[in-house]
């Protein structure tokens, strides 16, 4: 069964954006970019909110047309264009670049999507991630901690009553100081197995 994965960059003090939505503090060099290309290229699709999709669509569809773009940028442009996308929005009627618009997060629909063949599904954007977490739909967290203290900004994780026990399955330090912390939700695999067995009995 496919997993729902949250992959986000945060500052050391837990913000995913600055106070004015700036992300110019992200440290993405060729080493980290290549790592992201490999991880993202193995996915089966993006689950994203409207704002995140529109921000990506402003740059990535044609990023590989610039002959001065690094190879890792050109590679990711092709990955992003070709990846199936589900865009959650109550205002959009349609979205371009291999995207389907969905109005709301329906847990039963997400669980059915996870049972389809293919790679894992990445949920993108803090607003959408909070909704997925509220429904206990996130199986893995890939948190890229950047060596910067913003002081102010938008926190990745909001206050919630949804307690989640996590297990560290991987950590990696990159040459630019970014550290990957890869967690899986405790009991996620067991819960998926039990749910699949129950549905087939």
Automatic annotation (TrEMBL):
Gene3D superfamilies on file: Dihydrofolate Reductase, subunit A
Question: Which superkingdom heads the taxonomic lineage of this protein's source?
Answer: Bacteria
Q: Which organism is it from?
A: Streptomyces tauricus
- Kindly name one Pfam family recorded for this protein: RibD_C
For this entry, the protein name equals Dihydrofolate reductase family protein
User: Domain Bacterial bifunctional deaminase-reductase C-terminal spans what residues?
Assistant: 2-180
């Amino acid at each position: 069964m496919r997993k729902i994965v949250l992959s986000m960059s945060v500052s050391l003090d837990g913000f995913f954006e600055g106070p004015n939505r700036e992300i110019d503090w992200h440290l993405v060099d060729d080493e980290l970019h290549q790592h992201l290309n490999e991880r993202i290229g193995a996915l089966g699709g993006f689950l994203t909110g409207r704002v995140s999709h529109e921000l990506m669509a402003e740059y990535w569809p044609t990023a590989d047309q610039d002959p001065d773009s690094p190879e890792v940028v050109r590679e990711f442009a092709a990955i992003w264009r070709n990846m199936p996308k589900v865009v959650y929005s109550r205002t959009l009627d349609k979205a371009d670049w291999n995207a389907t618009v969905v109005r709301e997060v329906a847990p039963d629909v997400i669980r059915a999507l996870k049972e389809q063949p293919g790679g894992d599904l990445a949920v993108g954007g803090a607003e959408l991630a909070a909704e997925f977490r509220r429904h206990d739909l996130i199986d893995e967290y890939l948190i890229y901690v950047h060596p910067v203290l913003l002081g102010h900004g938008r926190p990745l994780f909001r206050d919630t009553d949804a307690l989640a026990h996590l297990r560290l399955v991987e950590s990696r330090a990159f040459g630019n100081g970014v550290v990957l912390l890869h967690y899986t939700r405790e009991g996620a695999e067991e819960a998926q197995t039990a749910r699949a067995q129950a549905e087939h009995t």
